[in-house]
Structure formats: C-alpha cells, structure tokens
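Re: the request from the purification team.
They wanted to know what the chain is likely to look like in 3D before they choose a buffer screen. I agreed to run a prediction and write the result into the notebook, where they can find it.
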Amino acid sequence: MQDETRAENEERKKQGFEPVTLVGWAEPPSYDAAAHKLYWAKDLAFGEGAEHTLNYNIRILGRRGVLVLNGVASMSQLAAIRTEARSILPAVEFNDGHRYADYLPGSDKAAAYGIAGLVAGATAAKAGFFKLLWVGILAFKKAIFVGLVAVGAALKRLFTGRSPALGSQEQS
C-alpha cells in the first residue's frame, strides 16, 4: 500500500496536489466475522505538513455488495473517531434478504477477492478497472471518433434548422 501511494504521487504532483505518504496503520484491520464488518485506519501525511491525517475505513459486507463508510479527520481525533465508529458499526445493517448471512451458495455470485482484497486491493481494483477502460477506449478510438462526429453533425442540423437534403439543393 505504501508503494502504491508513492507511485500515485507523480500523478498527484502533475495535477498540482501535494504528495501523500502512507505513514502506517492508525488502527490495523480488524474483522468482526459474526457481524461481517471490517474496519481499519491509515495515518497519512500530506506534503510537508506537521499534522497527519486520519483516514478511517469501515466495510460492511452484504449479500450482493459492500457498504463503504469513510471518515477523514486529523490524527489528534483518532480516539473520538474510534469511539464513534464502534458505536456506528452495530447500528448499520442491511435489510432482510440482503445481509451477508442471506448469501445462497451456488445461486449468488461470490466476490473475486477476500477480506485482504478489501483492505489492500480496493484501490488496485479501481485502478485496474480504469486501465481496462482506457485500453478499451484506445482500441475503439476510430469508432468513438466517428460516433462523436455523427452526433456533432446531428446537433448542428438540429440547432441550425436545416436538413441535409435542403442544404445541398439549389432553390429555383
């Protein structure tokens, strides 16, 4: 995760943002197997700032997905955020039929990643999706360009009020 954060800093700098350093765990990952809830907190440093930032993550597993809750605060607020997060965890539940415990093996689709994937691979999975999307756009760039030209021409005709047939014929 620290390597991934360092690798993303070049892009952050290009966009005018300060680099981020993942200092470590403010609270290591913890999984409540009975409630199917996962939480952890990261200690982040932005640029040369003296005060670190807390990024508190909660994942509540459901039958068809994951509810993601994130809290961002200063590291000095860790104790308060930890206390509040522990009071939130029992209060958040999926409706009947949508809970993790309602999963039907063989009928429902299982996630391709485990608990570790939710912690370490959440950003990697997103990055992989966007890389795949970019490759798809590059592969179909000609078709996309032709489609955009066609849409532009249709919009031009719509706003100028001329049809292609009338615009190309001479009036007598």
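For the purification team: The chain has two domains: 2-117, 140-168.
Please add any questions underneath this entry.
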